[in-house]
Task: structure prediction
Amino acid sequence: MKSRLIMTMAALTLLGGCAGMVRKNEPKTAEDHWDVRSEQLQKIDRFLMQARGSYGRLVPVKTDLRWQQNADGSFDLRVAGPFGIGATTITGTPDNVQVRSRGNTYQSNNPEQWIQDKMGWTLPLAGLRFWILGMPSPHSDADIDLDREGRVLTLEQDGWTLNYTEYQKAGSHQLPRKFDVSNSDVKLKIVVDSWNDLP
Result:
């Protein structure tokens, strides 16, 4: 009786060990990949992104984008039409910026509203710094759908929807190459030409 109990205990211990080994060797899920990926993306505190875009739903207007993100949290964003026509430069932080457009300089603590009032469209500056990296902003809740490698396919946050259709290698990272940003009023399509100055 005693030997049978010992054998039963040994068998259970062995099975438990095998079960642990099976769990350890299970294929990683999209969520597992995302956990690793999001941790890496959060460490990107500076970059230079140069891109082409178009905005507008009925008659898209082409534009060039240049976003310089600095390690201190400030940024320098330049938005220009073809051949530099109608260039607007926004520098500062999402809460306090200086806007230079058509030879004039403005100070605003609500840059998204300023762009809406002056240009008839807007940029979601608070979230865009994170969204262009392919991750949600940490400042509010978001819904995301992932591909098998843990890259964001669709992101919904703060009334905006982003669809990522292509990624590219940038340094040691996989960062977006093609994506669009839209809400009920604005649709902005972006094609990233280059990523530089990554940590």
